[in-house]
Amino acid sequence: MRKGLLLAGGTGSRLFPMTQVVSKQLLPVYDKPMIYYPLVTLMLAGIRDVQLISTSRDIPLFEALLGDGKQWGMQISYAVQYQPLGLADALRVGAPFIKGEPCALVLGDNLFYGQSLEEQLTEASQCRGACVFAYHVANPSAYGVIGFGPNGQIEGIEEKPAEPKSKYAMPGLYFFDHRAVEFAAEVSPSARGELEIVDVVNRYLALGELEVCKLGRGVAWLDTGTPDALAEATQYVAALEKRQGQKVNCPEEAAWQQGWIGDEELKQLASQIGGSYGAYLLGLLERT
């Protein structure tokens, strides 16, 4: 059974002073905490057993918000990352939780949304080896960039290259088989002193066991790690929800649609939350 790792560590220094006393993943993106969005991404991939990795300061707050996940038919546990040593370090921290199972790693400040997303996540979850995503961006030098050959084959992945070989960035969502922990343990710090997830991904590429799924125009990927990006994400979610009358990445709705909770459990959650959010959850039952 594939397990999920949700990395919500780091200092969030690009968002200071907002994040000087609280994790950026607890900041709101319109009507929901930021952490809800990547959590629902894992849920849409069918992943019910998730470990959230954060700092010792912030984990009690995440526990207060998310609990053990039973309210959504899930299991949520927690692990401390004592230093922000890079994305590959999350695989090391999560090794006792993964226990030789395949996993998916998602970054806590990444928002994914789109009509075909659930289908693509399901497909990625069935991959052999590893699967990453490719997203067309205007400024690829700010990301890990996937290089493609003339026949569309993957030639390599570079972290923040000065001269990118394509405009396809690698978002913060990765699917790995059981060997990811082993490969992460062999990664050495990069020039910036971090354990790069690109080094783990490139191990699968060298073995010929890396798949890349291109996210089309119908899927949005937003990184909410800067004030501008956070504001843009809030505006995006607000516009969608107001126009469509449907919430973006609502864990209660996702759990109900997945069949992990029933109508009565959804009603109970709606009554506990109250307000317009609770009214929306009750409205889901009226549509069926």
Automatic annotation (TrEMBL):
Enzyme class: transferase
EC number: 2.7.7.24
Occurrences of domain Nucleotidyl transferase (ranges): 3-237
Catalysed reactions listed for this entry: dTTP + alpha-D-glucose 1-phosphate + H(+) = dTDP-alpha-D-glucose + diphosphate
KW Transferase (keyword) present: yes
Cofactor: Mg(2+)
GO molecular function, one term: glucose-1-phosphate thymidylyltransferase activity
Keyword Metal-binding in record: yes
Keywords for the protein's UniProt record, in alphabetical order: Magnesium, Metal-binding, Nucleotidyltransferase, Transferase
Involved pathway(s): Bacterial outer membrane biogenesis; LPS O-antigen biosynthesis; Carbohydrate biosynthesis; dTDP-L-rhamnose biosynthesis
InterPro entries named in the record: G1P_thy_trans_s, NTP_transferase_dom, Nucleotide-diphossugar_trans
Function: Catalyzes the formation of dTDP-glucose, from dTTP and glucose 1-phosphate, as well as its pyrophosphorolysis.
Family, as annotated: Belongs to the glucose-1-phosphate thymidylyltransferase family.
Name the UniProt record assigns to this protein: Glucose-1-phosphate thymidylyltransferase
Lineage: Bacteria, Pseudomonadati, Pseudomonadota, Gammaproteobacteria, Alteromonadales
